[in-house]
Amino acid sequence: MNKLRDAIDKGKFILTAELGPPKGTDVSNFMNKAEILSSYFDGINITDNQSAVMRLSSLAGCLHLLRAGGTPIMQVTCRDRNRLAIQSDLLGAYSLGIENVLALTGDHPRFGDHPQAKAVYDLDSVQLISVIKSLNEGQDMVGKQLKGATNFIIGAAVSPIAVPLEPELSKFEKKVLSGATFFQTQAVFEPEKMENFMKFARKFNVKIIAGVLILKSVRMVEFINANVPGLDIPESVEVAIRKADDAEEEGIRIAASLVKELRDIVDGVHLMAIGNEHRCVDVLEKAGIV
Amino acid sequence: MVVTEKKNLNEIVQILKSLNCRNIAIIGCGSCATLAGTGGEKEVEELSNLLKNFGFSIAFKSVIDTACHERLAIKSIKEARGISLDCFLVLSCGSGVQNIADVIDKPVIAGLNTVFIGKTKRPGIFLEYCQSCGDCILSETGGICPKTRCPKGVLNGPCGGMHKGKCEVDETKDCIWVKIHEKLNLNERRKIRFSNFEILNRKPRSVGG
Fold first, then answer.
1. Across the interface, which of A104, A119, A170 has its CB nearest the CB of B157?
2. Is residue B33 within 8 Å of B67, Cβ to Cβ?
3. How many domains does the structure of chain A reveal?
4. Whole-number Å distance between alpha carbons of A90 and B97
5. pLDDT digits (tens, 9 = 90+) for B122-139
6. Could you give the CA distance from residue A46 to residue A19 in angstroms, rounded to a whole number?
7. N or C: which end of chain B has fewer CB within 10 A?
8. Which of A133, A153, A232, A219 is nearest to A186 (CA)?
């Protein structure tokens, strides 16, 4: 059963979380986390060489997750594969029971552990969305008929607090028109900014799932501010983490209170714990969701 | 223009030696390579003097108006008839070098590296502006090419790495999609068309004939 489709169809508050595959073939830790998350979340994003760091593939990670009883959202970036490889992986994924995808452009290889890698970007995220839509309609991107179509739920990313915002909103609109039906946002820390974005997003019939980052240490805050493209942690949050006796607990508290506030604003939340996935459930409990 | 850079002198000397060349023709280009300061009269003269110091004999020198033009190249090289030459050292872009190679049966040596099609910001400062993709969308993107000037070449707006209007890959540079939006807003043409998939990925091609 596709829990994500169910949650979307029933208008439930959607809960998703992010899980990165291991760098290597030992999936035991990944499986432990996958099993915990599977019982609480409607979908679990399996990252695709996140931050351009080479890892076990998103497709294989999704299969492991399916075996653990979870509902995968396969992240697909345009960075590492051309249009042939992307389409054939998508067909393969669907044939193996993966029904949800998140279409992304992908961080540039310059930031990863293989900075000399060829940056492919044969397609961009908007084009990728329309390619997936055409696979859903039984055709590849050049119009050739498929023997068996896909039926993916197509997701995309948006940064509701991008500066400047207008080009981002224009791209958001293109993603909707190309076939994206749900959006997972870049991490938000200020619910009022999300409210502002929602005034625009509500014009479209799509689900908005707000990204919530679970911080665990001062080091993590510093690392993100220095290294993660397009993500800024506000000073007030940074100060709270610095001042806290237990930074990890403070991170949980901040995330839980965000989830609570966002509940009335958006259609769901997407928890990003970056290595600390076993605490995702604590955030939901503290926020009064489970 | 086609922007070129000078090859390292040692690299040129090594190639000349490996091919046992003694009597050398140096060919320059009066177009892009002259503007780039890599293959004009001045640079042909400079390289000629440098190579003489290495013991080579420069038996023929010519700057062709346009080194990538077949008829002009044939005309210029006719002047070298009767001169004993071991090779042609060409200071032009890759098209010029290949054009010379098409019209003579002597070894041709590239004296420059071809780097991109771009503009001269000021003498010595060049910016890549065109990838010659064969499907120009500049009329729709405010005269700014995202395929060339975005490190990811994305065609539908800024990627998620855009930060305060700057590029994910180089924070000192503006996000080109932000620039495109600013330019279009300035001209009150806010709607950017959806790109199709016809953008070519650099395949060799010819125009006409």
1. A170
2. yes
3. 1
4. 44
5. 998 999 999 988 888 898
6. 5
7. C
8. A232
Mutate to test the interface with A, among B131, B140, B156, B203 (most CBs of A within 10 A): B156
**In this structure, what token pair is assigned to residue A2?**
């596709």
**Token pair belonging to B121:** 């910001």
Annotate A265-281 with DSSP letters as a single string: TSSEEEEE-TT-GGGHH
Nearest one of B203, B152, B197 to A141, comparing CA atoms: B197
Which residues, in sequence order, are bridge partners of residue A46?
A: A19, A74
Instruction: Give the domain extent around A260.
Output: 3-286
Phi-psi region of B164 (alpha: psi -120 to 50; beta: other; left: phi over 0): left
* Residue B87 main-chain phi, psi, to 5 deg: -165, 165
Q: B122 by DSSP, 3-state: which?
A: strand
A121, A167, A178 ranked by CB distance to B158: nearest: A167
* Amino acid making up residue A276: N
Q: Is B13 exposed, middle or buried (0-12, 13-18, 19+ CB in 10 A)?
A: middle
- The full length of chain B comes to 209
Per-residue pLDDT at A1: 84
Residue A248 main-chain phi, psi, to 5 deg? -65, -45
- What type of residue is A142? V
Query: What tokens does B6 get?
Result: 């000078």
- Determine, for residues A167 and B177 on separate chains, whether the beta-carbon distance falls below 8 Å: yes
Give the model's confidence band at B140: pLDDT under 50 very low, under 70 low, under 90 confident, else very high.
confident
- Identify residue A7 by its one-letter amino acid code: A
* Cβ within 8 Å, pair B181-A170: yes
- A164: which chain B residues are within 8 Å (Cβ-Cβ)? 165, 178, 181
pLDDT band, very low/low/confident/very high, at A229 (cuts 50, 70, 90): confident
User: Each residue of B82-112: pLDDT tens digit?
Assistant: 999 999 999 999 999 999 999 999 999 999 9
Domains (range + CATH), chain B: 2-115 (3.40.50.11860), 135-209 (no CATH)
